[in-house]
Amino acid sequence: MSLYKAKETKMTTIPTITEEDVRDYVGEGSFQRGQKYFRDDRIFDTRRAGMTLKAKCEGSRSTPYRVEVTFDDAGIADTDCSCPIGGYCKHVVALLLTWLSEPEEFIEQQDIDTILLQCDKDELITLIKQMLRREPDLEYLLTTISKIGISIDPQIYRKQVDMAYRNAGDEWGAASEIADELLAITEIADSFAERHDYTSECKRIVPCESKSCKYSLRFIASMSKLVASASVKMRQISF
Question: Which of 13, 79, 108, 180 has the fewest other C-beta atoms within 10 Å?
Fold first, then answer.
């Protein structure tokens, strides 16, 4: 199944922005550095999914950074980058300047939810296997799948938390990576809570049968989100 929309499908209109809008959003320093990245043609694999622009950017590391910019009706709504800054960075600037310069180079792509909903079971299985061949570390996610009323081993999630700290290292941006991993774990708990499956939700952290345990888990989730939010703010201040 193709990831890309047929030509006749109408895309949501991204609002018009200018270079000054980009400069105001990221600040003068990031704008100047991003201009150089744009001129050096660092942006590639440009895609558009609805109101979101996606691309990869060659940076100072061997692996390209993943860059995203999401718009709303007023303009730039959110930015994200896999670099230590995580947004408001030169890579975001390079992506936006590429969009302003060559919007026709962005391949129109459906949003992930739409793509997955259009897949049948066999297609999804094939897709997951392909993803696991590329990223074997994601195999542990299969162990987090739980049916309502069937508890899962809390040790799985304890190991996930441990891996988040072990894999992050001690370089700049490690705290944000840890926060992102912890938030991913809490999102699984949120899905259990939405299904009112408090047994599975609580047992992620502690072996508890009581529905009241959900309040402790919600507190942990809230603290993780605060850590992630603070990390983003610190990155913005530092750069």
Answer: 13
Least confident of 48-57, 93-102, 132-141, 217-226: 217-226
- Domain residues of the chain, as ranges? 19-108, 132-238
Please, which residues have CB within 8 angstroms of residue 20's CB and are 6 or more apart in sequence?
Answer: none
Residue 227 confidence (pLDDT) above 60:
no
Distances (CA, A) of 164 to 62, 95, 149, 202: 22, 29, 28, 20
Whether the full predicted model's pTM is greater than 0.85, yes or no, is no
